[in-house]
Structure formats: structure tokens, C-alpha cells
Amino acid sequence: MKLTLELIIVCGSPQEALSLQETLAPDNKSVPKDQSFSSAADGRDLRFLISSARPSGCLSSASSILTDVGLFQDVWSLTA
Questions:
Q1: Tens of pLDDT along 20-78?
Q2: Stretch (H or E) spanning 44
Q3: Helix (H, G, I), strand (E, B), or coil: what is residue 11?
Q4: Is 3.40.850.10 the CATH number for 3-79?
Q5: DSSP state of 13
């Protein structure tokens, strides 16, 4: 069995979505061998797709992304 999670983050602007994608990209360069990860920005939407045969690994990655999104939002609002 394989678990696949899709996270859709709706940002305030297309620029914010691209900045968030660029900010999170370095953290996700080394993905475990049994896991796949992709992200795509489309307008204000930023989609993350995470798949793994290990549900705990998939959920851990999703949790990490959500934590990083919260930190990004805090910093983004300070610079606006």
C-alpha cells in the first residue's frame, strides 16, 4: 500500500506562492528512496504531492511542510 498526500496552500499572491516554493525547495532536495515529492505553483496556489509506502514518513514530511509554511507566513507578514 502507498499513501499519497496532496497539500494545497493558497497564498496571498502568485509572488508569495513562488517565494514559498523557492524557500522550501532546499529542504526537500534529499527525499528518502521510498518517498516521492513534488511541488508546483499555479497562480496563488502551491501544491505539494508526497507519496510513500511508509505512512509515518509521508505524514512526517507533510507535518514538516506545514510547520515551515507557518514560519514562512510569519516572516512574510513582517516584510509586508
A1: 998 887 555 677 788 888 899 999 999 999 999 999 988 998 998 999 999 888 887 76
A2: none
A3: coil
A4: no
A5: S
Q: CA angle, 62 as apex, 57 and 63 as ends, to 5°? A: 95
Length of the chain: 80
Task: Provide the terminal-to-terminal Cα distance of the chain, rounded to the nearest Å.
Answer: 44
Helix %, strand %, coil % of the chain (to 5): 50, 30, 20
Instruction: Dig out the grid coordinates for 5 from the structure.
Output: 498526500
SS3 31: coil
Cell matching residue 72: 514562512
- Cα gap 69→32, rounded to integer Å: 21
Q: Distance of CA 49 to CAs 28, 29, 76, 77, 79, Å? A: 12, 14, 23, 26, 28
Domain-by-domain residue ranges, the chain? 3-79
